[in-house]
Design brief:
There is one protein chain. This protein has 91 residues and is mainly alpha-helical. The protein has one domain. 62% of the residues lie in helices and 0% in strands. It has 5 helices and no strands. Helix 3 crosses helix 4 and helix 4 crosses helix 5. The longest helix is centred in the middle third of the chain and has 17 residues. The chain is globular and about 40 Å long. Bound molecules: zinc ion (ZN).
């Protein structure tokens, strides 16, 4: 019998992914943060998702040079930066 990634986890994958940015920003209160950490220890696909988003945020905030990001992420970051410039009101 094949087990899916979310089976047996307290928090469903969709909920974990919905909270990814709050979690990465340390804005998530307990016990949700602990539940997410617990979910990540058992769910490989969410771990990959979180790793991707964490790198995305780090590059956006210039903590990590864009060259260190994977190619697929670089495209997404460039798109996000372009959208940001376009949507941001002039200072
Ligand atoms: Zn998951």
């Amino acid at each position: 019998m094949q087990r899916s990634g979310s089976e047996g986890a307290v928090v469903p994958c969709v909920e974990v992914r919905r909270l990814v940015f709050e979690f990465l920003d340390d804005e998530l209160a307990q016990p949700q943060a602990a539940l997410i950490v617990e979910h990540l220890t058992v769910c490989g696909s969410c771990t990959a998702y979180f790793t991707f988003e964490r790198t995305f945020l780090a590059v956006l905030r210039r903590r990590v040079p864009i060259e260190q990001a994977p190619a697929e992420l670089r495209d997404r970051i460039r798109t996000a930066l372009t959208d940001r410039k376009r949507s941001r009101p002039p200072d």
